[in-house]
Structures are given as C-alpha cells and as structure tokens.
Amino acid sequence: MYKKTQIVLITVIFALLVIIPVGFLIMSFNNDTEDIADTDNSSIFQSVSNLEALNLGLIDGDELRQENGIEEKSTEENTISEPEDIRVYISLRSIRDDLKIKLLNESSDKLISDVNFTVTVKSSNKTMDYTDSDKDGIIYIPYVEAGDYTVFLSDITSDNINYHADKSQTITVSDSIEYAKVDIKDEIKDESQINVAEEDTKVQDADQTTDISVSTDKGNSQAETAPATELQEDDLSEDAEDLLAQIEAETAAAENSKSDYKGAEGGTITAPAPATAPAIASDPQYIAAHSGSKGIDVSKHNGTIDWNAVKNDGVDFAIIRCGYRGSSSGALVIDPYYYTNMAGAQSAGISTGVYFFTQAVNEAEAVEEASMVLELLNGYSLQMPVYLDVEKSNGRGDAISVEERNAVCRAFLSTIKNAGYTTGIYSNKLWFENRISTASFLDNQIWLAQYVDIPTYGATRYDMWQYTSKGHVAGISGNVDMNVLK
Q1: Comparison of pLDDT for 262 and 327, the residue scoring more
Q2: What domain range is 451 assigned to?
C-alpha cells in the first residue's frame, strides 16, 4: 500500500515537472502573439491616423514618407493626364493650277504649327500623300492639273494632343485665274517670326541706274570724272552690261551737249564764260522736272516719325510701305511701322498711299500679295495709289524672266484695281527699260526712281519721280526718299 502511494506521488511530481514548464511556454507564446497583434493594430491605427492627418494638412507629407522609408514618385508618375483632343478644320484654296491646304484649329480658327501633319489628296485618277514638313500649318502644292480634289487628314498625336478632322474637304482647281482677293490674313507674319536679314533684302539708297548728275555745281557731270575702268564683256553680269550701256549713252549725250561751245583755231575747245552759263535751278528742264507736289516714301528704315512736323515742312503726300514678301522663304511680312505711319500721316492731314515690295515668282503669289495689301487697307481711305515695288534685291524675284515678271505685275495690279483702288508701279530706270515691259502698264501710274538732277528716262511717260534717297525733312531723323508728283 505504502509502495503504491509512493509511485503515485512520484508520477504526479514528474507530471507537474513536465506540465508546468510546458504551460509557461504556451503562456509565453500566447503573450507574444497578443503583443504582435497589438503592435500590428497599433501600426494600422497609426497609419490611418497619419493619412487622416495628411489629408487634413496637419502633418508634412514629405516627412511622413521619410519616416516610413517611402520614396517620392515624380509628378509625371503620379499624374496620368488624358490627351487633349483638337479638331482640325481643313481649309482649301486654289488661285490657278495650284492647291494650298491650311490646317486650322476649329475652335480658334488659327493655323496649327509645330505638328508634322500628313494629308491625302485624291483626284479622279490618282491619290497622293503630302506632309507639312516645315510644320507651319500650310501645305502648298504647285502645278496641279485642273479638276476636283478631295483632301483627307490623317489622325496624329503630338505632345499628348490628338489632332483629327471630322470631315474631308473638296475643291475644284481651275487653269484660269480670277484676279480677286483671297483669304490671306492667317498667313501674314510680323518680323519676329522671320529672319529679317534673309527676308528683307532690298538694297537701300540705290536706284540701280547711273551715278551721272547733270548738276553744273562742279562744272561737269560725274560721268566725265568717273574712272575709266576696262572691263571684259565676259566678266559683266546682265545688270552690269545694262548699266554700262546706259553710262556710255549718257556720257555721249553729255559730250554732244558740248557742241554749244565754240571751237578756237588749232582745235582747242573754249567753254562759254561763267557769266553766261545758266544756274541749274534756273534751267527750264530742271524747273519742269521738279515742278509738282512734293512727297516722301517711308518704311521701318525711317524709324519713328513726327508727322505734324513733316506736314509743317511742306510735304504734301507720303507713300507708306505696308509690307513685303520675303526674299528667301517667300513669307508675307507686314512692315512693323505700317500702322503707326498710316495713323500718323492721316492724322496730320497728309495724303497717303501705300507700296508693297514684291518677290512673287508667279501670278498666284502676286494675287496673294495683293490680297495681303487689301487686308491691310481695311479701315483706311487712300488719296494716293497702291504701288507695286519691283526692283532688284538679290532675292527669289530677281531670277524670273521678263515675261514672268510682267505676269506678276499684271496679276497684282489687276487684283488691286478690281477692289476699287488706283494702282501704280514703282521701279528704277534700269528695270523700267530692261526688266519690265513698261509700255504695257501705262494704264497704271508710273513711279520712276532715278537719282539725278534731271531724269533721262524716256522709254515711256512717268507720273511721279523719286529723285533722291538722301533728302531731309523735319520730323524724320536721317535720310528720306524724296518725290515729285507731276
């Protein structure tokens, strides 16, 4: 009995020795699990609390990210923007045997630039693709056969903007020309949009004719004192040949004028006594040449003008440059002083006209130039003609033939006339005699440039004479072109 009791006690003690440590281990594990759970719950609640605080602006987001080891993502990664959608309107224009495609923002009606658009042009017998390689919103196709053409625009995405046209456009191209204004206003540029040095290349202060002066102030003409440089015919340009021929002709005329001198025995020539030689200002030819209304022509090169001072100095009229076509790119450019000069001259009561310097190489471009002038004349009343300035500039217009230049002049002047304005053509003696068929333009005012005391131009009549580029008028700093209107 006693022995059994001992065995039971030993068993119980052994069991307790095993169960108690195991129990402690189990309790310890449970406590650790609860601690972990509490920690996790605390972290979750803390995160929720931080997010709420972040939303409320109570804590700094950058600081929170740094505490939690989170790297900030860039704005581009965090922002996913939807592409902007722009509808494109296809505008078509044809003057003759050509096609101009303008791609406009339908909502703003402005040309879309900096996008390499592709269009498909479909006619009855062929389909062609064209790209806007210079990204100016205009695709020009010359030498297009007469017929109907439909233009489609290919959808394109550029700089997160989707461009698409809702519909195509159709136009009929004709092989005849109508001298009428076309919509050109969205193609007119100001000088901030071009390379002025390459585009505005008309040579200032030159009449491209001759330096001969018949002034008796020095007793003889400049031709008589000019150096006799020997030139080989092959070395002369076409302009130089014309100029040399004119100098020779006028030098011969000057020599013939010496026939009034009396020859002495022995073959010597005796000039008349100075007392009997008429002063140039009293020469009837000089008086006739300089008789008429006095005026000036101006552009940006004359800077800011005090027009009231000009008026008070006896100037009757002003011909103001409104713009020019670029010598290189052919861009249509407004003179930066045009509006200021028009407002100032008209406010001062000076009769005004305008001139445009052409670099057109075909009739279609000439109609564009005339259309630009008509656009710029909106709101103004002119008392003088609209003149086309045709002369050398070392630009694109110099290379065309006389026949092509005649066509350009006729297209410009006809378009201006059809709009109800009086027209004129300006050039120098050399070009009026050699580069233009001037006799075919006598239904326009002829404005001659020749910087001499008495003009020697005789191919046709002239109506206005620009006699110097070095005139001086109150209200204008520096030189100014001077003119007399017959």
Answers
A1: 327
A2: 222-256+278-485
